[in-house]
Design a protein that fits this description.
The protein is an alpha/beta fold. Helix content is 40%, strand content 17%. The protein has three domains: 39 residues, lambda repressor-like DNA-binding domains (434 Repressor (Amino-terminal Domain)), CATH 1.10.260.40; 131 residues, Rossmann fold, CATH 3.40.50; 129 residues, 3-Layer(aba) Sandwich (Rossmann fold), CATH 3.40.50.2300. The protein is elongated, with a radius of gyration of 22 Å.
Length: 317
């Protein structure tokens, strides 16, 4: 490894373990060779794990949001099938913690699965040579395995459903996202433009990802556009807030205003009327992430795994 990179063994150790005593260009060169050779420093020699087991690190933004426990359950189930262990950590919706958590877990695990929003170049000083699977950040990594949510296809299905129902004045309640690009908003605006809807960025209101945030955002949206007839919500938690606010304002759903959510949370089944939503198989997402990690540990570089949200038409449209 050191010979292939043209550096000393000490420099290799500093690069793959995230030490700060070498310059950035040398670190990049060493890590590129490490990835090409599938090199990993032995943790067994340091007594950190049992030599017959594999341990995965899992980083998610928020364990309180009901989306992520289902995803975590999928990861754990797929890991159990392989006899692997899982260490779970949360950034608590603070993107600045992604790097430090990645570095911390990297010293304890064989591979990492992360719902990470930072770009490769931002993560590179923290990842080292640890195999990494990045979930739902797009298709933009030459170094790490990916699991991709086809957000555009899901949003298009939801928007097409509303348009087919005759809606043209469609607003969006977006969520404050600490993870990745604003793919749902961008897809929403793209469809609106393609269909010639009288809708632009002024029809998108951002709120906290919670029922309270969704309610406040809908009230602002309705105040600005009382002629709207449908709302696309960032996720089902936000949609729950929209539904509550609509009732307070005397707006009947779906008679006066239709509503589409995203993610297919189990809470959506409890709403009255039941929520039309883009259902995403969160457990499958976790299973795919473990499959990608397995491929990396076997020395393969797998193509992205893809999960597409599926429209569930129910009572709010």
């Amino acid at each position: 490894m050191a010979e292939a990179a043209g550096v000393s063994h000490q420099t290799v150790s500093r690069a793959v373990n995230g030490k700060g005593e070498i310059d950035l260009e040398t670190r990049r060169r060493v890590l590129e060779v490490a990835r090409r050779l599938r090199y990993r420093p032995s943790r067994f020699g340091r007594g950190l794990v049992h030599p017959h087991g594999v341990t995965l690190g899992l980083i998610v933004p928020d364990l309180v949001n009901p989306f992520f426990p289902e995803f975590v359950a999928g990861v754990i189930a797929a890991a159990d099938e392989r006899g692997w262990q899982v260490l779970v950590a949360s950034t608590e919706n603070d993107g600045s913690r992604e790097g430090t958590l990645t570095r911390s877990l990297g010293g304890q695990v064989d591979a990492i699965i992360g719902y990470l929003g930072q770009a490769d170049e931002e993560l590179e000083p923290y990842v080292g040579a640890v195999p990494l699977v990045v979930v739902d950040r797009g298709l933009d990594s030459p170094h790490h395995a990916l699991v991709h949510v086809d957000t555009e296809a899901g949003v298009r299905a939801g928007m097409r459903h509303l348009i087919d129902r005759g809606h043209r004045r469609i607003g969006m309640v977006d969520g404050q996202s600490h993870h990745g690009p604003a793919a749902r908003r961008d897809s929403f605006l793209a469809v609106a433009g393609e269909e010639g809807l009288p809708v632009d960025e002024d029809w998108v209101v951002v709120g906290e990802q919670s029922p309270k945030g969704g309610a406040a955002a809908f009230e602002a949206l309705y105040s600005a556009h009382p002629d709207l007839t449908a709302v696309f919500a960032f996720n089902d938690l936000v949609a729950l807030g929209v539904l509550r606010a609509a009732r307070r304002l005397g707006i009947r759903v779906p008679d006066d205003c239709a509503l589409v959510g995203h993610d297919g949370l189990s809470v959506a089944d409890l709403l009255d009327p039941p929520l039309t939503t883009l259902h995403l198989d969160k457990r499958r997402l976790g299973e795919l992430a473990v499959h990608q990690a397995d491929q990396l540990l076997q020395g393969a570089c797998p193509p992205p795994g893809v999960v597409t949200p599926r429209l569930q038409v129910r009572g709010t449209t």
